[in-house]
Amino acid sequence: MSGGTKTTTSMFARAMGEDFDRLHPMLQRRFGVGLGTGYACVGRGTMTRVRRGPWWTVPFLQIGRFRNILVPEAGEDIPFTIENYPYLDPFGRETVTFVRHFRMPRALRRFDATMILGRDGRIIDYLGTHQHLAVDLELVAEPDGSLLLRSGAQRFYAGVAGFRFPMIFSGRAELRESFDERAQVFRIRLEVRNRFFGFLFGYEGEFRCEFPASADIPAHVMPLRHERRA
Length: 230
Known about the structure:
The chain contains three helices and 14 strands.
């Protein structure tokens, strides 16, 4: 894996401002993906653990599974890929895919997301195959150069319907991503928790990245529907 290069043109750099410069150089390269930089990021590795909450959380996770949101099973040493490709969506907005595949023991599971930069400068994460759920994200550089991502307000869109999604039926995500110099791998840890019901879903693992040219975007990473509303 080649050394990191700094960019200030990606949506993540624009959203984080000077904080982006405090990220580890390899995280700057990974989150430098954008139309202006001309490259994508494809990560392959292993999730040492994929976890879910107690048995009564499974119905929530199963509902999410139908739109490629969350994973209803648990497991260890799960092969994993993540594909980040930039493209221009039908509404003229720069978009970056975050399509994750988990090769679980009984099935291949997906966790789909696409991100845009909102008009107010925040990153908005559309979850699932049909972008029905829009989530505000906060990105912060930690003192050790890792990235801390927290989810905030959520909005549900389907047809003409649109409303702020009640958090009692959803969860807030906290993700940490870092680069291990000694092992030369990216490390990632995610937890999704509900304010009332506690832990819902999470994973942790490591992966290595390639940075191919972004001209040819695989069809399988594209959402089936794009949502205009943010």
